[in-house]
Amino acid sequence: MSEDRIIIVGAGIVGLACADFLAAESHNVCVIDPDHEGDKASYGNAAGIAVTECIPASSPGVFWKVPGWLLDPLGPLALRWSHAPALMPWFLRFSQVCRSEEMNRISAALADLNGRTYDDLLPMLERNGLSSELKRLGALTVYETDEAFKKDKWEWDLKRRHGIECQELSGPQARELEPALSKIVQRAVFTPQWSQVSEPRKLHNRMMKNLRDKGVQMLKGKAIAVQIQEASATVMLQGGGSVSGAMAVVAAGAWSKPLAASIGDRVLLESERGYNTTLPHPGIDVTREIIFAERKFVATPIDSGLRIGGAAEFGGLTSAPNMKRADALLDLARAYLPGLVEEAGVQWSGHRPATPDSLPVIGHSPRSRRLIYAFGHGHLGLTQSATTGRLVADIIANRDTSIDLAPFSIQRF
Question: Which PROSITE patterns does the record associate with it (predicted)?
Answer without folding.
Answer: PROKAR_LIPOPROTEIN
